[in-house]
Amino acid sequence: MFIIWRARTLTQIIIAAATIVLFMAIFYWQNGAIATLVGQQPPSAIYKVDTNRRIVALTFDISWGDQMAPKVLHVLKNKGVTKATFFLSGPWTLQKSEIAKQIRDMGYEIGSHGYKHDNFTEHSNDWIRSQVTKAEQAIYDVTGVKTRLIRTPNGDFDKRVLRTLHDMGYTVIQWHTDSLDWKNPGVGAITQRVLTRAVPGDIILLHASDTCKQTDQALPAIIDGLRQKGFEFVTVSELLQEASPKSKLE
């Protein structure tokens, strides 16, 4: 009887311990801690990188129109800026394929800006995967570029969205300096904001959609001002290779 009682007690202890381990695993998984326990950081959005070099990445989001993008490309060419990153939405790429090809042919880096311009946090993981896949295919069909960088519509994300995109092989790119050109606050205001906020390793947010009506006018002074401060222009991918990313989750 004593042996049977000990066996039952041992079985109960094992079951109880296994239950505790299971609940702990669920807790850690939900809080992104399992990756940390095995020596990996949970996925995060990249805002800038830590570097001593005076380099910055000019980035342009495009989701609508065909007037501003050619003007921006014209300024970049005239100013001799050969390195920049454009985040293109899927529908825009299909509708304005010639401009998308021009961006590629001029040697600029291309990333994804998703498909439908909705906040990812308001949709399921399946919806996110479907939208990103559609955008990836559209950009590839037009430009031959397989995107690995993404800027989510409206810069909207949370831990769940980051995990979903990471599992798809994407790196989420945010920004450290927002030009606020999307508010059309005036050419001087856009220029001054960028020049006073830019730091080494910065990712600078600009737009080349038609809703932003002052970007091309502000861009020459932004480029000249950054150069006067000793900055050089690189793509986002080159920036990420420079140093360990400094990232944060909002």
UniProtKB/TrEMBL annotation:
The keyword ATP-binding does not apply. Keywords: Membrane, Transmembrane, Transmembrane helix. It comes from the Bacteria. Residues 54-234 form the NodB homology domain. InterPro entries: Glyco_hydro/deAcase_b/a-brl (IPR011330), NODB_dom (IPR002509), PdaB-like (IPR014132), Polysacc_deacetylase_ArnD (IPR050248). One of its GO terms (cellular component) is membrane. GO terms for biological process: carbohydrate metabolic process. This is Polysaccharide deacetylase family sporulation protein PdaB. It comes from Kyrpidia spormannii.
